[in-house]
Amino acid sequence: CLDVDECSSNSTLCGPSSVCTNLPGKYSCSCLPGFFSPAVWSPEKPEAFKCTGVPFKCKEDVMPNNEWVQLCQDGAAVKPKYVSFCAVMNATFSVLDDACKKTTAVSLKNTAERFASVIEKTFTRSSFTKEEISTLATVLLKSVESTTLASFLKPSANVSQTIQTEYLDIESKVINKGCTEEDETFNLKAKGDKMKIWCSTIKESESTGISGVAFVSFEHMESVLDERFFQDPQTPWANSKRKLKMNSRIVSGIITGEKKEGFSKPVIYTLENIQPKQNFESPICVSWNTDGKGGRWTPSGCVTLEASETHTVCSCNQMVNLAVIMASGELTMEFALFVISHVGTIFSLVCLAVAIITFLLCRTIRNHNTYIHLHLCVCLFLANLLFLTGADKTHHQIGCAIIAGFLHYLFLACFFWMLVEAVMLFLMVRNLKVVNYFSSHNIKMLHLCAFGYGLPGLVVFVAANIHPQGYGMYNRCWLNTEKGFIWSFLGPVCTIIVVNSILLTWTLGILRQKLSSLNDEVSTLKDTRLLTFKAFAQIFILGCSWVLGIFQIGPIAGIMAYLFTVINSLQGAFIFLIHCLLNRQVREAYSRCITGKTKPGSQTSGISLSSVPSASKTV
User: Fold this and answer.
1) What is the largest CA-CA distance in the chain?
2) Regarding the domain delimited by 64-331, which CATH topology (the fold level of the hierarchy) does it fall under?
3) Is the pLDDT of residue 196 over 70?
4) What angle (nearest 5°) sits at the alpha carbon of residue 179, between those of residues 175 and 182?
């Protein structure tokens, strides 16, 4: 006899959302994962078998294109540094896989206990990176939702399940007979947090089979999945300047229907505050928004209805993973540094522009020294201008990399011109007996330009060829800190700082010896004090302030960050102060420009680190 394959001849034999399996002399029907039939398949009563859905996701449907998830796929060679991450990832997926493969009812209590174990290992002693935490949290939240939905497949009476563990509480309610009234509400509670959902919302969710809702509250997750992940695409500026802190447990609203958002009546969440709300604080109800790369907290879809000292009430038009972030009126350190940096940089740009004009137009101070100052000011002006206008243009990867490359070059050029200035200052002081030393030795500006502009260009060229991906970061257009690429900037900077410190210390020693041998007019206390002040200020300008940036670690990191930002953003102002306002000849030129007076016939003699007389003179 010939066996007939009923499944091939009739693709709709078992009905929708089902699988037909051909057997010798017969066939069998079963439901797809996420669907359930109240009646067991029987050849005698095939019409009683009907698969109704509770749509939940299995492992392959949770973030399928995420590179972190793919990193831990079965059979993949895992690098040692990702072993702990993949262990947690696979432990989470193991719970989900068991729920997907289970042919009998899923035990909500058992899955909750297993997820609680994952939370305890992951979020109470976390050593993962921000990206890893984001991925693990997203996978966990989606897996908890899926296994909770899978538990609704068990045919039972209209009962409520309450599962309580140390790290995870779940309350679920099966709506067997549907809602009797449109205005009827269902209230669920977990760990002191509450969810209220209307009957009309459950109907609107388009459940095809069993209707049910669940509410989950997670303990300790908020300490790791915190305000660092907050992002407001509508008003990023408004909240970037405010101090934020997570102030509730993370909760999840779950519903069996296909529709999860855009409800006519909102779902009301009442979350318990971890710390009492202060008068100066404003709560923000945020939902966990996921994409292919991970997740972030956003305020979209939820609004804050009311807030007391102990609780915050959120209204959402969707079933979400929710938390409350408190925003205080206190400025964040990041915003304070942003304001200081930008105000200081703008002020420095003005000072540098005036200094550049001064060095170009003031003939009385025109010499090698002022030409060096001119190039230093031009490089610093362009670097500050590009930093101010382009450092945050991260939306275009190639453009951001180009901006980072130019910033790398311009800041390095500043330092190399500072090195040129230190060398020339050393040579000038060492040869005080020949005041026009530079002219007599025919030091051409072309050679100085080749050094001041050529060497930083060489450094950038080598760095870009070794690691071209090192230019540009996710939050700013600067050098990437990965693989030590930042040392392509810090290496030359630290070297120049050390060399400059040695040269200028040597210069001070020479000054101390030679000032006593000069004539009385020059070696007065006033001139000695001025020369010493300018020499010390020169050390400061030549980069000692940048050392502060290296020490932004440990308990003094905040103080160092403020000092570094203030001093470096005002570097242009310091240059203007030292080389213009504290230069007698420049002050006289400014005075003549303001009053309209002509240059007097006689000049007072003196020595300045910023200017060297053009006439040959011995002392």
Assistant:
1) 129
2) Chondroitinase Ac; Chain A, domain 3 (2.60.220)
3) yes
4) 145
